[in-house]
Specification:
The protein has about 500 residues and is of the alpha/beta class. The chain contains 15 helices and 23 strands. The strands form 6 sheets. Strands 4-5-14-15-16-17-18-19 form an 8-stranded parallel β-barrel, surrounded by 6 helices. The chain starts with 15 loop residues before the first strand and ends in a 10-residue tail after the last helix. Bound molecules: inosinic acid. Inosinic acid (IMP) binds next to β19 and α12. The site of inosinic acid has 24 residues, from β19 and α12.
């Protein structure tokens, strides 16, 4: 008989709900924070990472997610040169102006503007006349305050140029970014509009873009890992991620140990799903451990070889290891040691994210990001043919790193094709538009859940939250609408 047979069922996110707790007055959607500290010098403004998958993360995704305060992880299937080129481009993009910003015309209605704003996820958009002369700023917040009929002109609800106490404009297009940063800091405005001498819109700068855009690169546990790390670190990468389907082995242990002797950039090691796996990587010195096996949307690992673990149970076991490990470290005087935990695979709804964040410091997702315009997957039209025209896109190609299509041998511990068999599939996902508005909407849902639970920060959520298992019967009733005609 096996050494151990566990008869308790392993769990996943959708089986649980978060219980409300007392919400103090100051705890609101406006005040709660989704910031998460993954390691020293590595703080995300929003706790999301895009998967190190060839069909998910390339330059566009890493940039878009980085700008929103998350972290894109560049896959190992990219060559070292390609990874480095993307890191370089993102780092160069940091702290820049938005040249030729999206704008709307003064002849457009509120309804038209809202449609554009919703599509791109902008919270503010400049209003110009036919000569590109800047007239004012449409901001969602101001619009919510003053209201207005959808058919009214946008000029009715914009903040006009002459309401200058609210708008920060600068009339010298040669202004340097350092001066912009000072202006934004002094004025506490979150954006600056740059105009020419005839008030024509030149460019904009946003306070949030003044913060560094973070980006990560994945390495495998084989061959070129050291060269890859050196090239990426030289270029300014913020995190190295060991990307292997099973990191509970000598290879991952040795790399983490050696890496920590040489490099300062934080290292995330994974994936693991057991207490012992987490303990091993933490003892080797990993700053972050990544949890997940068999739960990915494109994953066939469980089907192929019956290995893996349901993700919430995996996460809870890793967290148990983390607590035990940190207690020992703190007891021996290593007070600053912290290990953060990223959960990876099987999360695609805000509800899943909420439950995951009651244990994990951050969430990695493939499927969720694959659906967006910025993903690296090929975009298809209604006939299933590739298209570059945004309005025609209906679906996006997705494939696992362990699929026949990607054949990322190293991720699955193969040294040559002779032993390879697929542990992932090639498929497609329904197109979901631009990333920013979707991410913002889900961030809002998470914040609202945190408010219900009376939690101001993700640390509060991890320390104070109570989640409760639902029976299949209650899940059918509680987690969806019921006894109604869903079409209306
Ligand atoms: P998703 O968010 O459910 O789509 O899961 C994404 C995660 O699945 C990735 O971050 C990887 O950890 C994992 N993954 C990627 N490709 C494969 C594969 O081919 N087989 C199994 N798991 C995979």
């Amino acid at each position: 008989m096996a050494n151990q047979i566990i008869l308790d069922s392993a769990r996943t996110f959708g089986e649980f709900c978060l219980l409300p707790d007392y919400t103090p007055k100051g705890c609101s959607i406006q005040t709660v924070s989704l910031e998460t500290k993954l390691a020293d010098n590595l703080v995300l403004r929003t706790p999301f990472l895009s998967a190190a998958m060839t069909s998910v993360t390339g330059y566009e995704m890493a940039l878009a997610l980085g700008m929103e305060g998350g972290l894109g992880v560049l896959p190992t299937r990219l060559s070292i040169d390609d990874q480095v080129e993307i890191v370089e481009k993102i780092k160069r993009r940091e702290m820049g102006f938005v040249e030729d910003p999206d704008s709307v015309k003064n002849t457009q209605t509120i309804e038209e503007v809202l449609r554009k704003v919703d599509k791109h996820g902008h919270s503010k958009i400049p209003v110009v006349d036919k000569n590109n002369v800047f007239l004012g700023m449409f901001t969602r917040r101001h619009y919510m305050e003053v209201g207005g009929h959808p058919q009214d002109l946008v000029t009715e609800v914009m903040m006009p140029l002459d309401s200058d106490d609210k708008l920060l404009c600068h009339k010298d297009p040669t202004i340097k970014i350092d001066a912009v940063r000072s202006l934004l800091e002094e004025s506490k405005h979150d954006y600056l509009v740059v105009l020419d001498d005839q008030n024509r819109l030149e460019k904009m700068a946003f306070a949030k873009d003044m913060k560094p855009i973070l980006v990560a690169s994945a390495i495998s546990t084989h061959k070129d890992w050291r060269a890859r790390v050196e090239a990426n670190i030289k270029t300014g990468v913020d995190l190295i991620v060991i990307d292997t389907s099973d990191a509970y082995n000598d290879f991952a242990f040795d790399i983490v140990t050696e890496y920590k002797k040489i490099f300062d950039v934080p290292i995330c090691a994974g994936n693991i799903v057991t207490y012992e796996g987490a303990m091993t990587l933490m003892k080797a010195g990993a700053d972050i451990v990544k949890v997940g096996m068999s739960s990915g949307s494109i994953c066939t690992t469980q089907r192929e070889k019956a290995v893996g673990r349901a993700p919430l149970t995996a996460l809870m076991e890793v967290d148990r290891a983390r607590k035990d490990y940190l207690k020992k470290e703190h007891d021996i005087g290593n007070k600053d040691r912290y290990v953060s935990v990223i959960v990876d695979g099987g999360i695609s709804s805000a509800g899943d994210m909420v439950i995951a964040l009651t244990v994990a410091d951050a969430i990695m997702m493939g499927n969720y990001f694959n659906k967006f315009y910025e993903s690296a997957g090929d975009k298809l039209n209604a006939e299933g043919n590739p298209t570059g025209i945004e309005s025609e896109i209906k679906s996006v190609i997705t494939y696992g790193e362990g699929s026949e299509h990607a054949r990322n041998l190293e991720r699955y511990g193969h040294t040559d094709m002779m032993t390879f068999f697929a542990e992932g599939v090639l498929s497609k996902v329904e197109y979901a538009g631009r990333m920013k508005p979707n991410l913002k909407a889900d961030a809002l849902r998470i914040k609202a859940a945190m408010v219900n639970a009376g939690c101001m920060t993700l640390t509060d959520l991890r320390e104070k939250a109570t989640i409760e298992l639902m029976s299949q019967y209650s899940r059918d009733i509680v987690s969806t609408t019921h006894d109604i005609d869903n079409k209306r």
